Each structure stands twice: as structure tokens, then as C-alpha cells.
Predict the structure.
Amino acid sequence: MIGLISSILTITLRAGTSLVYATIGEIFTERGGILNLGLEGIMLMGAVTSFAVSYYTHSLPLALLAAVLVGAALSAIHAFLTITMRANQVVSGLSITLFGSGFASFLGQRLGPATNNHRLVGLVGAKFESFRIPVLSDIPIVQSIVSQDILTWGIYLLIPLAWFYLYRTRAGLSLRAVGENPQTADAMGVDVFRLKYAYTISGGMLVALGGAHLSLSYTPGWSENITGGRGWIVIALVIFSMWNPARAIWGALLFGGINAVQFRLQASGTNIPAGFLNMLPYIMTIVVLVLITWWEALSKKVGAPAALGQAYMREDK
Amino acid sequence: MKKLAVLGTILLVSAILFAGCNKKPVEPVAVEKPKAFKVAFVYIGPPGDLGWTYEHDRGRKALNEAFGEKLQTAFIENVPEGPDATRVIRQYAQDGYDMIFTTSFGYMDPTLEVAKEFPNVKFEHCSGYKTNPNMATYFGRIEEARYLSGIIAGKMTKSNKIGFVAAFPIPEVVRGINGFTLGVRSVNPKAQVKVVWTNTWYDPVKEREAAVALLDDGSDIIAQHQDTTEPQKAAKERGKFSIGYDSDMGKFVGDTVLASPIWNWAVYYKDTIGKAMAGTWTSHQYWGGLKDGVVALSDLSPNVPEDVKTLVKAAQDKITGGWSIFSGPIKDQAGKIAVKEGETVPDDKQSTMDWFVAGVVGKVK
């Protein structure tokens, strides 16, 4: 039984890692009042570029750097369109997703050795290995937490740091002010445009890291549409965590965990229909979303940044 | 200044346009080449999936080699099943393609719809059952190759648990699991085949998670009916063997893939297009097996011992000799006789198969 829980926890953390990166990235972007629906495209581009770089250079740090740069570039386009040009954020985000997923497939068919007639698909590159820590890696449950690779360890650090930054620092306060009421923030002397740019771009970097986790660690290698729609799930997970990085872990674990559990239930020959089990993660997300909205209405607390999705113009009232 | 620039642009654009108009129409080439026969393929996934679509595309490329300039092929990838498919198929028909192959079950109704609108274009739909005077269906008995791979798995499992990552509980997949299990049980009556449904054809992450769950549960060989190589990779990382599907996955994953039941569409495509070009094509329902060559078992991995190879060869000869893998006696999961001794499951019952044979752990519904 302990062994089973341990193995479920291991895979849950592993599966949740890319979701946590992307969720926290999107939380920062949305806290600045910018809705970025380009997640799916950015994750795919992060996955394909980081894998290509790891294949050619065998250097994982370079691969991560490439993903981060691509994430920055794509979200910079989104930032330019929505902040400077004040374009509709939904439309811009969707076009980033369309562009990103198409271009990622294209790169997968063009990069890679010409001798491999399907190019980048099916190749093996460098990948992150799980750490083995003496003593700790032999204790059940504990080992599921510590015997992970550096990217999963990264979320252990990222979650508290992101929370601390957002709620306990002056910079975090400015960021929240920009998302709640940019006019006031502007009057306070906060450079609204600069912050919006900064957090849209750095958010995009984290999202691309989430994509890189898929192609460098979780399902090493490149296959088309490797994210399988996880970018869209992240948008729900941001609401789920009520724009609080500390809660991002629960959404990601729920999503990663239910899948891990339901496949194990199936393998053990349960009587519950497989179709129902497959539905569970999605149903749970909807149920929790409804509960949270309900709770919000009751407690008069609003999770979403008030100015989310609105273009800011200085001359406006 | 700005006005000048605008004026300049307008002048430039009109100059280019008028220059185009003044050109004389190009004279038709005197020696007329025979018009190439145009064939289009509609794919559900990318040819780079190394699985289902990859195999269809391999068939398409073989056509170009076989027919040369007499044939012209085109394809479109990642076409969602539904209204989009109708639009894509209709576009090909309007563009003057002589024959259109649609390669996923969900294209059945879209294909039929367009086939009725274009009676002079020939349509072939893979894996469905609806036909028209100008629309045929084609499919293969991959379960025969799966039976052979089952023999290998049954002989080589040590835990007597074999994991099967499966996409959707539809007859095609159920037949495959049954065929595989019958193969396993023919050499190892103690072995169980554990089925996990993913409810997706193509999702590398989910396919891996399902495989890992089966490995954790004690399966030491992973077989699959999915469109990527991810379950095979997951098994390899645990140091376990696997059985591929669709294409020879050993080429992409390594020798831990013991064998792969594979599609060999070129055999069929060459034949049916040859008939269409010769004018002898008629609507049909093709369901080929091992003996036709449209399905096969890939080359076996060096990890497969000689005595197992001999068993596989013997079974292969039996099947190509006309023996049906669904010959009785076959028991169902409850242990009741489902197919009596001396009987076989007829084709129409096979195409609607919704029950598992004894030895499968899992549920169809």
C-alpha cells in the first residue's frame, strides 16, 4: 500500500511539474492585467526548441535557455500587441497559440538530421535524470519527493518564492496594483507599461519552461502536439488557484494525480467504467471552479485581478 | 512627404499590375503530356507520428515510386474528424483529384457526403462500413499480426502480467486485444493481459502515464494500441520489454521492442489505384490479412529466443494457410464458451466485437 502511494506521488509530482511552471507564469502575467491565451503555443514552442537544442548541443542548460528565450519572444509579441497596440487580448493570445503550435510542428519537420526522414520526431537527446539522495531516497513517500529531477525540485523553490514575491515585497504589491487598478498604480508612480511588459514576458518564460519539462524530462523527445492541450488546462488552473502561486500546486497535483490514480485503478481491474475515470480530472476541475466562484460570492472576496483583460491607456479617465 | 510616399506606392503597384496584364498568354506546350492520375490522402495525424499516419504516408510514398510520373499524390495532415473533414475532402474533389483516400474512422460520414456530390471521383475510406457506388472501404486484420506478437509476449513474460495501453473501446481495438490475448494464451494459459483505456488516439503524456501505471502494477511487457511510441519508451526506461504497433517501433525505440504488428498499406494502395487507372475499379469492402501482406509482423528483436521465433513462424504459416485466429473453442471473461469448437467468429460479428476473451483483465464498457 505504501509502495502504491509512493509511486502515485512520484508520478503526480512529475506530471504536475510542467503545469506548475505554466500556472505560475500565467498567474504573474494575469496579475499584471494581461490575459495570455497563447500558453499552448508557447509551451509547444518551448518543448520543440529545447529538445532541438538538447539534441544538437547535448547541453541541458542551453536547452532550458533556448526555451526561456523563445517563451520571452512569443510573449513579447503578445505584450506588444496588447499593451502598446491595445489589441484584444483574447484574439492576440489565440493567434499566439495558433502560430506557436503550427510553427512548432513545422520546426519538428525541418530541424533534426536529414538522414532521419521524420526529422526531429523519435530522436533521443539529453534529458534530466532524477537525483538519488543517500538515505532519503530509500524511505518510501519521502523518496517520491526527493528522487526527482532538477525541474521538479525547481517547483519546490518556485512556489514559495513566487508567493513571497507577490504578497510580501514592494515589487509584488506594485504588480498587484497594476492588475487591480492601473490608473491608481500609475498615480502612485508605478511604471504601468514597463511592469506589464516585464510580467507578460517573464510569465511567458515560465510557461515555456513548462513545455521544456515535457520534452526534456517527462516524455523525453519531441512528438507533435506533445502538450495535448495542457496549455488550456493551465488557464483553468490559474482560476482554480485564485491567482495565488501557493495554490498553484494543488491544481497541478490534482490534475496530475487523478490521472495517475485512475490509470492505476484501471490496471488493478476495477469495476468503475474507464470512461468515467478518464473524465475525472476534468470534472474535478469544473467542480472546484464552481465551488470557488460560489465561495467568492459568499465571502465577497474576488480572486481575479479587477483590470484583467482591459487595455490601459493613460489618457483615459 | 507622406503623401508622396503613398503616391509612389500606388504608382509602383499599378505598374506591376499592368505589366502583368500586358504579358501575352503563355502558348500551350505543343507536346502534351498524358494527364497524371491525381490521388489525395486525408490524414488524422501528422506523418511524423511514427504510427498510424506515418504508415499511410509510407504507402503514399511507395505509390510515387511505383507509378512515377503517371501518378500525382497530395496529402493533408491533422484534419479533425467532423465538418472540417467534409470541407477538406470536398476541396480535393473540386480540385480535380481522381481518387481520395480518407484514413480515419471518423471520416466515414464526411466521405460519404462528398462521394454523393461527386459521382465521378472515387473515394476510399479506411476502417469504416458505409459504401456508395463510388466509395469503397478498406481495412486490415491487424489482429492476426497481434496474435503473433502475443505468442512472443506470452513466452517472454516472467510475471505473467502483460500490460496493454488501449485507445478507445471500439470493435477495432477490442479485436486487437482479443487477438493478442489469444496469442498469449496459446502458449501461456496462466498469463493475463491488463487493459488500461486512455480514451485518446494521440496524447504522448497520457500514453506514458498509462504505461507507467501498468508497469507499477507488475506488468513486465507493454503492448499498445495508440499512435505514439511513448508506452514503448516508458517500458524501456524501466528495463522492460514491449510490443509495438503501427510501424516497426524497434527502429525508433530499440531492441526492447520485441516485435511490432505493422501496416503495409502500399500493397493495397498499388492494387486499387492500378485498377482505378485501368478503369476496372468498382466499389468494394476490402479486409486483408497476413496472407495479403497488408498487415505483417515486423522483424523480431534480437532479444527474442530462437524457439519463440519457431513458434511464431508456425502460427504465421497456419494463419496464412487460412486458419482464423477466432476459431473455437474460445472462452469469454466469465469463463463461458463464447465460440464453440469447430466454429469461427464470422466477419460481421468480428466487425461489431464488444466482448473480451478469457485472460483479459479490463472492461469494454
